[in-house]
Amino acid sequence: MNDQILAQAVNVARHYGETVALEQASCRVMDSERIALLGSSGSGKSTLLHLLGGLSAPSRGSVSWPALGPVEGLRPQKVAFVFQAQSLLAPLSALENAALPLLLLGAHPGDALARAGDLLERLGLGSVVQQLPEELSGGQAQRVAVARALVSGPRLILADEPTGQLDSVNAGRLMDVLIAECDRIGAALVIATHDPQVATRLDRVWQMTHGVLVPGEVAA
Taking the model in full, what pTM does it have? Predict the structure, then answer.
C-alpha cells in the first residue's frame, strides 16, 4: 500500500433539518485499502459514504480528495458508487447499464460492452445481460450495479450494503469478484454493511454507532 490519501473527512456532520444523520466522523481512505463500515440500519453508514463520494456536502467539517482532485471530477472514473437502493436506468439493458460509465467516458461501444459483459459473466449474470432492470430480481440488479461500479477501473469504490439482497452463495461470489477486481486495478474499497461475514473479507473495520464513527482513523 502506498501513502496516497484518496478521501479524507475531518470532523464531519450531516444534518437534515432537525434530523441528525451523522454527528461526528474523522477518517481517511488510503490507496488500495479494504475497509468495512459496520453498523445497524440508520446508524449513519450511508451518509458517511455519500460524503466520502462527494454526493453530498457536510453540514459541518470538511471532506477532501488529496490524490484524486476536486469533487467535480470524481465521477465516474475516479470514484464509483454502489447504491443500496435500485439505481439502474430503466430504458437500458443490464449490459448497457453496466457499460454506461465507459460509454460516458468516450470508450468505443464495442470495447465498453465487452468489458461489461465479462464482469456480468463473472458475477453470474451471463444469461440476463439483455434484460431490462424491471425484469431482474433485486439481487440481480444489485450485481449489475456492482459491475457498473467496476467497469471504468476507478481508484475508489464505495459500496452500500452490496450483499444485502443476496443469498450466501451469491454474496460470496460478489465479494470474490469485487475484491479480485479491486486487487487487479489497485482500487480502494469501502463497504458499508451490517453483516460481520462481509467484514471478515476486508482488512480493516470501522464501527458506526448512532451517527458517530468509532474508532475511525483520525485525520491529520
Answer: 0.92
Q: Quick one: DSSP state of residue 36?
A: E
Could you tell me if 154 and 74 are in contact, meaning their C-beta atoms sit under 8 angstroms apart? no
Residues (pLDDT < 50) of the chain are: 1, 216-220
Strand partners, 25: 12
> How large is the C-alpha radius of gyration of the chain?
17
At 167, is the secondary structure helix, strand, or coil? coil
Report how far apart the first and last C-alpha atoms of the chain are (Å, whole number). Answer: 19
Three-state DSSP at 213 gives: strand
Helix, strand, or coil (residue 20)? strand
Angle at 162 between CA 157 and CA 164, to 5 degrees: 160
| CA–CA dist 120, 127 (Å, integer) | 9
Pairing of strands 156-160, 188-193: parallel
Q: Which domains does the chain have, with CATH numbers?
A: 32-55+68-207 (3.40.50.300)
Whole-number Å distance between alpha carbons of 35 and 15? 25
CA–CA distance, 16 with 214 (Å, rounded to integer) = 22
Are the beta carbons of 149 and 81 closer than 8 angstroms? Answer: yes
Give the pLDDT confidence score for residue 2 in this predicted structure: 58
